[in-house]
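I had to read the description of the data format several times before I understood it. In essence, backbone conformation is discretised, so a fold becomes a row of integers matching the chain in length. I therefore recommend that a typical entry be quoted early in the introduction. For illustration, here is how one protein appears when written out as sequence plus structure tokens.

***
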Amino acid sequence: MTKGAERIIGLYRRHAHIWAQRRGDRLVEAEWLDRFKELLPPRPNVLDLGCGSGKPIARYLIEKGCEATGVDSAPEMIALCRESFPQSDWRVADMRELSLERRFDGIIAWDSFFHLGFDDQRRMFPIFRAHAAPGAALMFTSGPAHGEAIGEFAGELLYHASLARDEYEALLRANGFEVVAHMVEDPTCGRHTIWLAQRR
């Protein structure tokens, strides 16, 4: 199933406008985004990995006073971001190869990181660390347990993967992060499994 991870970028490129339309403005994540923001300094800069169209998550953070830098592998998604939020910094890039040579007060990878295969997820933690300022918050979504799952979007197979809870905890700790909060399949947040951590 891991080969499904290799098709994710193409899927989102082909269906960027459909994704943006279906995602819409509904924000079930507000409570977690507020918890994330509580860990940030005033007027923080936030790196949004796999930002999609920028709506509704990046928009919410921008409206809350954050300076947003968004990264997505799909140029079509970044074009939507630039159209909606021309004042922010939007970049076409693969998070697995990211090297922006700057650090951020917060990093978020919501519904994006979990499309990576097991080894690519493991390799992301040094990338998180390299882009995290001291005290930076990190929030990402994963699956509830180790394994792979295949969903569907616009008639195509949609790959997801997750490491085990213990491995995520070990990777965070090894890269200088402490877990602040963790919830498995939060019923108030669309059954997302959420990790919120802070760099020591």
